């Protein structure tokens, strides 16, 4: 299994609106069968401002299915949106 964790810091302009849109649009990825476990999370209130704002935590059967996800039209569309509202991104993929 491969766990894919991708975290984002959102732009300050329209931050709350963009976080809400991120969370809503991320739900569309849930329909992708290659995702075995699906979590979309938001940073907890009253935590350090240096924390990332939102994260995707997805599990895949293999690096091949992760690659298929990353090449999917749904991921491409979501990624295009995210690029317009984020200032920073960090990602890790690990086997477990």
Describe this protein's structure:
It is a single chain. With 96 residues, the protein is α+β, with helices and mostly antiparallel strands. 35% of the residues lie in helices and 33% in strands. It has a 4-stranded antiparallel sheet with strand order 2-3-1-4. The radius of gyration is 13 Å and the shape is globular. It starts with a strand and ends with a strand.
Catalogue the unreliable spans.
none
List SSEs in N-to-C order. EHEEHHE
Classify the helix fraction into a percent range. Answer: 25-40%
Q: Provide the gyration radius in Å.
A: 13 Å
Strand content: 25-35%
Instruction: Give me the count of strands.
Output: 4
The mean pLDDT is 97
Number of helices: 3
Distance between the termini: 6 Å
Shape field = globular
Strand count, sense and closure of the main sheet?
A: 4 strands, antiparallel
- The largest sheet has its strands arranged as 2-3-1-4
- Judged by helices, strands and strand pairing, the structural class is alpha+beta
